[in-house]
Amino acid sequence: MSAKPGPIDDHDDAYSTMDFIAEARRPLLVERHRKLVEEMESSLSDSLITGDTDHPRLKAMLLELEADSEKARIAKTMRHLAEDPHFKDSTLRAALVEALCLLREEGNVEIAALQLHVIGVYREVRREVAARQGEAPTLSDLRELPASVLGRLLNPIVPVFGTPSLSDGLIYTPSFADRSMRTIRRMRRAEEADTSWADVAGDPPLPREAEEPLSVLPEAERKAARTLLVRDRIRSAFYREVFLRYLSRDEFDLSGDNHPTVLHWLQAIEATAHLYPFMQGQTTGQKAFRISHLIQKILQLHEIYARVALASQHPSYREAFAGKNTRDRLALMVKDHYPPLALSPELTLSALLCPFPGFVAWVQDKVDQKDFVLPPDAKR
After folding, report:
1. What is the Cβ-side half-sphere exposure of residue 367, based on CA atoms within 13 angstroms?
2. Which of 95, 128, 101 is nearest to 114 (CA)?
3. What torsion do the CA atoms of 13, 18, 23, 26 make, to the nearest 10 degrees?
4. What mean pLDDT is reported for the chain?
5. Using N-to-C axis directions, what is the helix angle for 345-352 and 174-189, rounded to 10°?
6. How many CB atoms lie within 10 A of CB 206?
7. 37 Cβ neighbours under 8 A, 6+ residues apart
8. Angstrom distance (rounded) from CA 193 to CA 286
9. Cα 68 to chain center, whole Å?
10. CA–CA separation, 63 vs 65, rounded Å?
11. Integer distance in angstroms from the first to the last C-alpha of the chain?
């Protein structure tokens, strides 16, 4: 006996139909107001967003944004832009224009009121982004910001260095990312840098256990081998000075050397190398060489710890990793030919735009836990 068809839910059917109607009408409603709203948005300037203006009327407008009611409206709009799936692939400007068109349609809102509102939204997003990327974005930067980023502004994720999810907690504009990558490439390329490790104080002495095996080698080989050992000793001393001494919990003072991101810290080292013990007295070429290698080392650190964290999530490693430190886990992964993570622009930006205080805390925690693994140079 065939089953009887269930009753039709008129309410659900009507709701679905209304949804379809609303979706079909949405583009038409937006287009009705698009020209006027886009002209209004295009008339905005950086001074309106930054507040750097002496014009009495403009200053009065900005003062209106301090009202609790306007702050609430701005917060509501930001939540709407972050949560509405219509805007998931839109820039902030495109999403704002569309949202304001619909707002004008629904409430017949005056264009002047919409202008004040959009200024308020841009100002709030600018404040939030500046706090995270370490530089205040321009209006042009804000316009190109993906609207989806607002979700991370409203529901922030704590960025943790050395984890696969580091990038999920970072917020920066596309133009800031482009500028950062250009800076990173320049610093890594280090065109006028030395080609090898050296120290202005001269070659450090080698311990007896390193010197004795050299005595049986022919002179040319002995000289070449000794040079490599000396360079490796200088290299080790440099990284020990940076990670184990300068950044140590007992020595490092964040109030005296605080930076928004790791990249800002590296730029400070480049600009004021004489203030950093691991750079003091070195030649210009050696300073550039050391900064280039320090960048590479930070990228390597992030990659190996993120790789181990990623492997730890796989069922096949859970039991094998139990009770083991990072060095032992890496050894197991090498045996299994576990591939390294690709050194992509995203990974590079994640590591170097990580908040500097968080990076320092991560290094200190790993050292305290005796789980700090310094990978070998990519090319020896």
Report:
1. 16
2. 101
3. 180
4. 90
5. 90
6. 15
7. 97, 100, 101, 104, 111, 114
8. 6
9. 32
10. 5
11. 79
More confident site: 191 or 350: 350
Q: Alpha-carbon Rg of the chain, whole angstroms? A: 28
The model's confidence at residue 171, banded by pLDDT at 50, 70 and 90, is very high
Task: Specify the amino acid at residue 362.
Answer: W
Could you identify the residue written with the tokens 């004008």? Answer: 104
Domain boundaries, the chain: 13-156, 168-200+235-368
Q: What is the pLDDT of residue 380?
A: 44
Lookup result for tokens 């984890």: 163
Output DSSP code: residue 244: I
Query: Which residue type occupies 170?
Result: L
Nearest to 245 by CA among 354, 367, 349: 367
- Structure token pair of residue 189: 């390329």
> 90-106: per-residue pLDDT in tens?
999 999 999 999 988 88
Provide the token pair at 295: 């960048």
Tally Cβ neighbours within 10 Å of residue 133: 23
Q: Which two tokens stand for residue 347?
A: 């990974």
65, two tokens: 């944004």
Q: Which residue has the tokens 């022919």?
A: 218
For the whole prediction, is pTM greater than 0.70? Answer: yes
CA distance 94 to 41: 10
What distance in Å separates the CA atoms of residue 282 and residue 287, rounded to the nearest whole number?
6
